[in-house]
Amino acid sequence: MSALIFDVDGTLAETEELHREAFNAAFVDSGLDWTWDRPRYKALLAVSGGKERLHHFLDRDGIVLPDAQERVARLHALKTAIYADRVAEGRLVLKPGVEALIDAAEAAGIRLAVATTTTRANVDALLGSAGIDPQRFETMVCGDAVARKKPAPDVYLAVLRALDLPASACLAFEDSWNGLTAAKEAGLRCVVTPALYTADEDFAAADLVVPDLADTQRFLSLVKGG
Ligand code: XBP
Ligand code: MG
Fold first, then answer.
1. How far is the CA of 10 from the centre of ligand 2 (A)?
2. Atom of ligand 1 at shortest distance to CA of 119?
3. Is 9 a catalytic residue?
4. Beta strand pairing status for 139-141 and 3-6?
5. Is 7 a catalytic residue?
6. 20-73 tens-digit pLDDT
7. Closest CA to 192 of 4, 2, 7, 1
8. Per-residue pLDDT averaged across 95-118, rounded?
């Protein structure tokens, strides 16, 4: 048996501009005069996880927020709701080759999984808007389910445990250095499709760097008979 393990943001779809838009909308709705433009968001993306990114922003900019833990959690919940609404409006499309690869893997009896830093709500919103049943993924491990987010390997190790498969029987798909590092530290081979905010990152550790996932048979051949 073998499996494909997908990252979400930047891999299934180009999502980070919509995340940035949702963060900024949450700031406005919360009466905060913060704005994350593209250069600032690019720098903040070094930290995976929306809540961790907010705390990093506060620390980096020396912003002291009373009850910061609670305020950040509330702010992130609002951002997540705004993001899900905008995804439901059809603002995102899957990246080239993603749906065909999912279909072909299933037809070949290759199992599917998700290993992401974002929330399950965001994954369901994206898959729902793309008309893909989340149940097609045998297991999904999302950011808050593990102690350490990417680049730590925790989400990938949790997926391998859930699949009861060795890393050698699986193939990971990522878009960022954080994600690639997490996959490699879990012992996985990893295909990288760089995204808008990650195109200039270091992918030397990747097993393959391709512009998109259109070459379905190439990826399936890497895990067939696994
Ligand atoms: C990318 C991330 C996430 C998103 C924002 O996740 O680091 O934090 O930027 O989503 P992935 P949240 O592992 O799928 O590339 O605000 O829900 O964290
Ligand atoms: Mg990603």
1. 5
2. 17
3. yes
4. unpaired
5. yes
6. 999 999 999 999 999 999 999 999 999 999 999 999 999 999 999 999 999 999
7. 7
8. 97
